[in-house]
Design goal:
77 residues; mainly alpha; 3 helices; globular; transmembrane helix; membrane; transmembrane
């Protein structure tokens, strides 16, 4: 297949870090007005609760994991 074949699947992971950085900066600047703030905070809360309930994971680890997962889902739906 050719490199610019429209039928070839495109991988978007090569720009994950710059996209995440831009999204985090947008959340920091706009606060609750940014469309990603509420889902990321919800993910952080769910992760913290899960971390508090699970014996292996602590709540800060769960909080970071939940926020990171939701941020990833906002960047790469």
């Amino acid at each position: 297949m050719a490199a610019d074949d429209p039928q070839e699947p495109k991988h978007q992971d090569h720009e994950l870090i710059p996209d995440a950085t831009a999204e985090i900066k947008g959340i920091a600047k706009e606060g609750m007005k940014h469309p990603s703030t509420k889902p990321v905070l919800t993910g952080a809360a769910v992760g913290a609760v899960a971390g508090a309930l699970l014996p292996v994971v602590t709540w800060p680890v769960g909080l970071i994991a939940g926020a990171g997962f939701m941020l990833y889902k906002r960047i790469r739906p």
